[in-house]
Amino acid sequence: MTVPALHNTGVLYRRILSHFPQDITLAFAYGSGVFKHHGSSQGQMEKNMLDFVFAVDDPVTWHTMNLLQNRKHYSILKLLGPKTISSIQSDHGAAVYYNTLVPVDGRTIKYGVISTQSLMDDLMHWNTLYVAGRLHKPVKMLVQSENGSLRAALVSNLKSAVTASFLMLPESFTEEELFLQIAGLSYAGDFRMVFGEDRSKVSNIVRDNMQHFKTLYSNILHDCPLVVYKSQQAKLEVDKSPEGQFVQLMTLPRTLQQSITRLVDPPGKNRDVEEILLQVAQDPDCGAVVQQGLWKTVSYSSKKLFKMWKGWRRKPWVSHT
Length: 321
Prior knowledge:
Layout: H1 10-17, E1 26-30, H2 42-47, E2 50-56, H3 59-69, H4 82-91, E3 96-104, E4 107-115, H5 116-125, H6 131-134, E5 140-144, H7 148-168, E6 172-174, H8 175-184, H9 201-207, H10 210-223, E7 227-230, E8 235-238, H11 242-250, H12 254-264, H13 273-281, H14 286-313
Parallel strand pairs: 2-4
Antiparallel strand pairs: 1-2, 1-5, 3-4, 6-8, 7-8
Helix pairs in contact: 3-4, 5-7, 8-9, 11-13, 12-13, 12-14
């Protein structure tokens, strides 16, 4: 199964992509400049910055080529060369290097570059849930290579989002409630939702994009054996038995499982992960434990990014994300 792509990329996106080195394994556009958010007009959308992520197999080579083509996109870090830029990309924050406030074809864009391997690690394990979280929501897929492992990781990420959301929702819920839960996963514990960003952002994302969410998740919901999906009524019923919850907990991404086990297992006890998750599955507050584990995962990543951002703000020559 492949991730449903929103194929109407349009001339604008093709023109923008033509400005960059073409050795890209995955490229997508996202955000309020691409998808309508509740309360925004078409005119506002056209003024919003366009956000992109490019996954590349070899960041050093890609940045070398991009510095030749688009040297003005980079901060003064360009003087340090592609190896240093790639090192900053891989060793800090969410393994993404952003160039921002870049004028291209009459629009202002920002674009993040991530290695294909780092992207796959985040999709499979939710190491930071930064790019993986963006891919829980509808995006405009522009380039998708025939890399079978990457395609499998993209689908795995969507399934993980559904599973984590099932654990935090009641036994019966609506499609909209599910999509609100999914869209909010990567914002749990994110300092930006406390300081500075619109707290109604999640509902604004979902409300006007229900059909896009259905396109993204319909096959997964129909194929999942632990849920009854009444698509005509837009309602779902999930297995909340301890056995059902244990199956779901065991399929969660590794980083989230580790966060949950650290919450539940007293220091020094070092019980087996399966034993701890079995205990959580039998807990009436299982969903709250998962929510807390998710908060720990995202807040750790968010704090790392915030510290890096604060340090870079003091240096006017660094592009901010």
